[in-house]
Amino acid sequence: MKTILEKPKSIVQSCGWCGGCGHGVIQRLIAESNEELGLTDKTINVVDIACCFWSLDGLDYDGIAGPHGRCAAVATAIKKVRPDKNIYVHAGDGASYGIGLSETMFAALRDIPITMIVVNNGIFGMTGGQMSIATTLMGEKTTSSQNGRVQELNGEPQDFLNILSQMDIEFAARGALYDVKEIKRTKDLIKTGLTRQSEKKGFSIIEVLSPCPTNWGMSPVDAQTRIKEIYTKQYPLKVYTDRGGREHE
Amino acid sequence: MYKQLMKGNEAIAEGAIRAGCRFYAGYPITPQSEILEYMSKHMPENGGIFMQGESEVASVSMLWGAAAAGVRGMTSSSGPGFSLKQEGIAYIASYEVPAVIVSVMRYGIGGGDITQGQDSYLQAVKGGGNGDYRLIVFSPNSVNECANLTYEAFDIAEKYKNPALILGDGAIGQMVEMCDLPQHKEHDINKYSWSIKGRPAGEKKYKATNLNWYYGDREWEKMVRDKYRAIMDNEQRWENYCIEDAEMILVAYGISSRVCIDAVNMARGKGVKLGLIRPITLWPYPRNAFYDLPATLKGFMVVEMSITAQMKEDVILASKAKYPVFDYCTAIDIPIAENIVSACEDALEGRLAEREEL
Question: Which residue in A165, B56, B284, B325 has a CA-CA distance of 20 to 30 Å to B219?
Answer without folding.
Answer: B284
